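Researcher: Please translate sequence to structure tokens.
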Amino acid sequence: MVSQFEYSQIAHPDEGQQLGNILAQCFLNSQDEIEPYFNRIGRENLRIIREGEQLVGGLAMITMGQWFGGQRVPMTGISGVGIAPEYRGTGAAIAMMQYTVKELHAKGVAISVLYPATQRLYRKAGYEQGGIFCSWEIPTQSIQVREQPLRVKPVVPINHELFHDLHQQQAKLNNGNLDRNQAIWEQVILPNDQEKLYAYLIGSPDQPQGYIIFSQNRENDGSSFIGLRDWVVLTTAAAKTFWSFLANHRSQIDKVRWKGSVFDFLTLLLPEQTIKQKFIERWVLRVIDVPQALEKRGYPLGIQAELHLEVRDDLLTENNARFILSVANGRGEVTRGGKGELTLDIRGLSPLYTGLFTPHQLKLAGQLDATETALLSATQLFAGSSPWMPDFF
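Model: Translation complete:
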């Protein structure tokens, strides 16, 4: 730990102003844009780092959950990590992240996730690639799904509580999806300046099978597109209705953009492969508490297995040990000790935990070493859908 830096919560209003100025410069925002962000996150969730009397940077913590194997894992998202330009390269950023990881461990948090501007910094704090944030685009004319088996009913005003349960039903089936914090929901349902949002339930009001929230936008070249803020599809009928509803905009809207998995099942309903990837980024995850993280996630039903892990963690000594993961009936139990048949750094545990890469792929990448038996057990235990999330924070 770099000792010349002091890490703390915000104690005085002027510290919030100073942090706002730093983050506004870091992220090309105005102070007017930073203030609503602080209010949404909550000032009690902001952290700052100082050198002497000088505030040099800060970040925000977002307490929420993340779904893996059908189970909710307690997760803290890290957002708005910024260091004043004159203090970059001094070790302030890595010191702040190390302090943050230690604080999260003391609070009993299982895992942490963030979107990295640079991987090198966060890898030094034990984070590694965990899943995908992916945006797709399709010409509206090429959707060509005409069957609309369900009603589509507008929702006015837009209130996330109406969509919460539907979102949870879909999220728990997708590794990496969030159990959203209030701040994330506000990010979904609050329009930007000069933007109008539209929301529709798919299905009957008493038994909805999905929803769609979107805005209609125009590009500089005059073309138009629908930008989906959020969507849920829980049945085949809802999936057909989803596409048909969007296709019905083809006379005025040129393209549709949405966020989904890198292997998006919705595209199977399309007659041709006319989608294109608009944007892709990988979020990173750190296992904060190894036993809790392994016990909280779910595992494939019908598999009974034991995996002997040896984890190296230079920052959190509690994780720097051997563990036995015993799985039965879709749940795991962790005890200390064992043979250490699968050895890996805390970073290598992240893509194994999320299922982003297979154990064999991680071995080829030098992220782990294991016996053939341990590789087979790990492959069975961490099998599942490719991890992704539609939310950026």
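Researcher: Any highlights?
Model: The longest helix spans residues 92-106.
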